[in-house]
Amino acid sequence: MVEKNNLLIPFGNFFRNKSLQNFLFLALIQSSTILISLISMPLLIQSIGAEQFGWVNLSFSVIIVFNILVGFGFNLNAPREVALNQSNKEALSQLVSNVFSAKILLAVFSTILILIGAYGLNLFQGYQTILVLSVFLLFSEATFPLWFFQGMEKMKLISIANVFSKLLYLLGIVLFIRDPEQSKWVNFILGTSGLGINILLLIYIHFALDIKFYKPRFLELFTLLKNTGLLLLSNIVTHFSINGALVVLSFFASATTLGLFSLAERISMVLRMFPAMVIHSIFPNASKLLKEDVSAFISYLKKVSFVAFAVGLTVSLAVFGLAPVIIQLFSKAEFVDSISYLRVLAFIPFLACLNIMNVVIFLVNGQNNLMFKSSWMMGLFMVSNSIFLTSQYGAIGLCYAMLSTEIVVFLICCVLNWVYNRPLIVAILETKKSTAA
Hints:
Elements: H1 2-16, H2 18-71, H3 74-84, H4 89-120, H5 128-133, H6 136-143, H7 146-152, H8 156-176, H9 186-207, H10 218-243, H11 245-250, H12 255-271, H13 273-292, H14 294-321, H15 323-331, H16 336-345, H17 348-353, H18 356-364, H19 368-393, H20 395-420, H21 422-436
């Protein structure tokens, strides 16, 4: 009986770990988004038709680009600041006010650019109305307080709220989207459902957590944007480096090859969310540990990196072995080329996990400049390598280009950490030696 209790206590503590909870709730947010997308896709195609569905998706893609501007790197930088000021309500209130004010102003600026493009320059022909009504997604992004709850390490509420907003969107589609003429309201419903839930979360932050909202101080906002600007550029370059493969392939391959590659690439990109979620889950707590106890930070970072490395390797091997089954499941057909592409791309999550330690060290030290340096070097390598290998070997060459990009960015980050964070890297290496001894 005693042995049974000894086993249960650590198991219970394992699930009470805040970093693990952060990861699980982030996974819930991501998986709910993917699941709702999969459910809504056939409903929309049946109700508005394939052509209007294409315009809706194109509008959403344009908004995603502007959402990078609205996010401005705050999702990487702000959780660290929140974590370091958890007990200082005044500093936290000022930080929260500045970040939300900056993001809302950026959403307004992005909306103005879209309106000028649509009605001033007569761009976005065929989907102007859909795109303009999609701007509510910008304000949904601006008011989404994920970064705040990450820093506070209280992810349960926002994960539940996010699921609820996606269910509202699904309900709205079922109730109000019946014919192609109503396609303009699809992204509008998604944006307003998210915005409404976010406003309720802001009310909770103000009254339940005693966080005050101050009027924006434009000098402080300018300083905040200036300090976070490198993260914005880093996000833009990283976004293209990770998601730009289809753009490169479109210059060299037929529509059929593009479709077969897209199927495998979409699966691998979903799996690549794993290391990103690990980083977002642990770095608020890692920031506090680095400030309070370097040895505890090193021990914590090594444990998480090892577990993520093991999980990443397991997932990659499983996808490699089950590639035919996975392609069959998603396509209802046996596409031999897609299977070949997926077997190569299966190792992207594993290779991305190698870089978790490097990226966390950048983030906890607030080294936005190193994030930017690694991103643009990664982007340059990705573009040049992808163009060369795709032109020579087609889609399979692009798969190997994507793999090599993950390896190269890992090596780049290792070099940058050795140059700029050598004492910490030496301490980590010495800890490994002493542990082995």
